[in-house]
Design a protein that fits this description.
The complex is a heterodimer of chains A (249) and B (312). With 249 residues, chain A is an alpha/beta fold. Chain A has 6 helices and 13 strands. In chain A, helix 2 links the parallel strand 4 and strand 5. Chain B is built from 8 helices and 18 strands. In chain B, helix 3 packs across helix 4. Chain B is elongated. The chains are: A alpha/beta (249), B alpha/beta (312). Chains A and B meet through helix 3, helix 4, strand 7, strand 8 and strand 9 of A and helix 3, helix 4, strand 7, strand 9 and strand 10 of B. The structure holds flavin-adenine dinucleotide (FAD) and adenosine monophosphate (AMP).
């Protein structure tokens, strides 16, 4: 069973992003970029399925600027078998990503596609659901447990009230939540090995997809800053302030 | 054309985040509400009473009992031609189904809006709330999830809309509900509570979360947690507040033994008043806290419980 894992190149989660002064976006120049943390979890899950003998080949795909090849190298160093870069300078939104991934899925024939639940830059939480829709496949979103058994995937989902379990008939789309697994670090030998693993480069045109964004970015602003408050000296003072000053209790 | 809001319901009541979605939808046009599931009579009645709702569509079908995204998206797609906007609260259920429906409509969804500028233009947080993007949609039908904490919910009473029964599509698309393991609590829900008290890694164990209980009892608070506390197994996943957990904006948020990582702040920094209790005076949480107490939580929490017992 082939597994496709889309991995997005995003601003590293430790970076405190700054809004550009002209409101045109956030500053990404010279900022550390990494694989979206949820996608690391997706790669890890695919590797574990392979180690269990459930998955065969693992294909990582990244869509965007040429530098996404670095993100693919990370996936390959973790243990993916090969990479596909769909290269474009166009800003890709989830609808376009889902269409491109659908085209890749039709070309590669995976039985399982594991995505992150959310990219930590656009915070859309949409692509996996959209891809499942376009393929007409069932979806298991926000997965904290995944068991493949023959033709089915049993997915435990993190929902607002707790956990929910669904059974999907393969082929299916799964999106990862934080507690699905703890991704491994790539070892130095594996990083070296990954350099020799193949990365194919395609374009949206080659996949016959129009990647143009549907949402126009009007502006980006800094959120209202909170006034730093003050320290209180004791629990009694805290309670007194909450009662008489803030009047919230 | 009107706008359609998919409502989450439980025990015959409309969930508070969905009442916030109705508030957002009211800014866009005449609101129709959609209720799906099994035995939905009471929920449809409750939806009809929401102020601002002009009509309730009720789709009762076993296939919709657990709000599986596959049949529900098909239903939304079938209804879409009559509406300019499809909305739902950005809850687990809303986030699961709305993008699926959007893709079938060839629409780019607008996730987690925190503001309405006009019928095409919306404000949404990006980068864990470190930036607010204003985006304009060019799609004919807009598919939207609403950040409940950013819109005051409409009241539960005041409207009197007619209820129309509608059919449901049959296709299941290879997904089947098996079971749910839902946390039971007498406390208010995190996303609806006026006061939230959250514990972090500093709590050290699930057992120690009991220290929060007398305080939560006294304040009528919901109990939340940081990711670290959830990952460590102190509390269930649905306690998580943050970028990838729940977003809350209560009148009072008390963070105990939480350092204040941006991913946590993303879920609570719009709270009216923030209190932090942390033994590390340099913890970033103090940069957003209105009242900071540098103290060992194991001493501070019992003292806080005692202090609250005293009448003012
Ligand atoms: C993709 C991604 C998504 C994430 N999403 C979320 C999210 O949604 N929500 C979230 O919370 N995090 C999220 N995180 C994790 C986040 O980055 C932090 O790791 C996490 O919030 C830390 O939790 P914490 O503050 O409880 O733990 P720590 O950072 O370890 O802080 C513990 C604090 O407790 C204090 N402390 C310890 N002992 C005591 C004591 N006895 N008395 C008083 N204080 C004490 C310490 O001084 C310290 O400040 C995410 C991370 C990633 C990468
Ligand atoms: N440009 C991209 N390249 C590869 N994968 C992507 C891309 N954009 C989104 N994804 C995948 O879709 C998931 C959800 O992203 P989003 O819907 O943008 O929050 C991510 O975790 C990735 O797995």
């Amino acid at each position: 069973m082939k597994v496709l894992v889309p991995v997005k190149r995003v601003v590293d989660y430790n970076v405190k992003v700054r809004v550009r002064a002209d409101g045109s976006g956030v500053e990404t120049a010279g900022v550390k970029m990494s694989m979206n943390p949820f996608d690391e979890i997706a790669v890890e899950e695919a590797i574990r399925l392979k180690e269990k003998g459930v998955a065969g080949e693992i294909i990582a795909a990244s869509l965007g600027v040429a530098a996404c090849a670095e993100t693919l190298r990370t996936a390959l160093a973790m243990g993916a078998d090969r990479g596909i870069l769909v290269e474009t300078d166009v800003e890709l939104q989830p609808l376009a990503v889902a269409k491109l991934l659908k085209a890749l899925a039709e070309r590669e024939g995976p039985r399982l596609i594991i995505l992150g639940k959310q990219a930590i830059d656009d915070d859309m939480n949409a692509t996996g659901q959209m891809l499942a829709a376009l393929l007409g496949w069932p979806q298991g979103t926000f997965a904290s447990r995944l068991v493949i058994d023959g033709d089915t995937a049993t997915v435990t989902r993190e929902v607002d009230g707790g956990l929910e379990t669904v059974v999907l008939t393969l082929p299916a789309v799964v999106t990862t939540d934080l507690r699905l697994n703890e991704p491994r670090y790539a070892s130095l030998p594996n990083i070296m090995k990954a350099r020799r693993k193949p990365i194919e480069t395609l374009t949206p045109a080659a996949l016959a997809v129009d990647p143009a964004p549907r949402l126009a970015l009007v502006s980006v602003a800094e959120p209202p800053r909170r006034q730093a408050g003050r320290k209180v000296g004791s629990v009694a003072e805290l309670v007194q302030k909450l009662r008489t000053e803030a009047k919230v209790i | 054309m009107p706008v359609l809001v998919l409502l989450d319901h439980e025990g015959g009541a409309i969930k508070q985040p969905s009442r916030s979605a109705v508030a957002a939808a009211s800014r866009l046009g005449e609101v129709h509400a959609l209720i799906v599931g099994e035995a939905i009579g009471p929920a449809a009645t409750a939806a009809a009473r929401l102020p601002g709702v002009a009509k309730v569509l009720a789709a009762e079908d076993a296939s919709l009992a657990h709000a599986l995204a596959e049949p529900l998206a098909d239903l939304l797609v079938a209804l879409a031609p009559g509406y300019t906007h499809l909305l739902a609260a950005a809850t687990a259920a809303g986030k699961n189904v709305m993008p699926r429906a959007a893709a079938l409509l060839d629409v780019q969804p607008i996730s987690d809006i925190a503001g309405v500028v006009d019928a095409d233009t919306f404000i949404r947080p990006i980068y864990a709330g470190n930036a607010l993007a204003t985006v304009r949609s060019r799609d004919a039908c807009k598919v939207i999830t609403v950040r409940a904490a950013s819109f005051d919910p409409v009241p539960t009473e005041g409207g009197a809309a007619p209820v129309e029964r509608i059919g449901a599509p049959a296709a299941a698309h290879g997904a089947r509900f098996v079971s749910a393991e839902l946390s039971k609590t007498e406390r208010p829900e995190l996303t609806a509570a006026r006061v939230v008290i959250s514990g972090g890694r500093g709590m050290q164990s699930g057992e120690n979360f009991k220290l929060l209980e007398p305080i939560a009892d006294r304040l009528g608070a919901a109990i939340g947690a940081s990711r670290a506390a959830v990952d460590a197994g102190f509390v269930p996943n649905d306690f998580q507040v943050g970028q990838t957990g729940k977003v809350v904006a209560p009148d009072l948020y008390v963070a105990v033994g939480i350092s204040g990582a941006i991913q946590h702040l993303a879920g609570m920094k719009d709270s009216k008043v923030i209190v932090a209790i942390n033994k590390d005076g340099e913890a970033p949480i103090f940069q957003v806290a209105d009242y900071g107490l540098v103290a060992d939580l194991f001493a501070a929490l019992p003292e806080l419980a005692r202090e609250l017992e005293k009448s003012p």
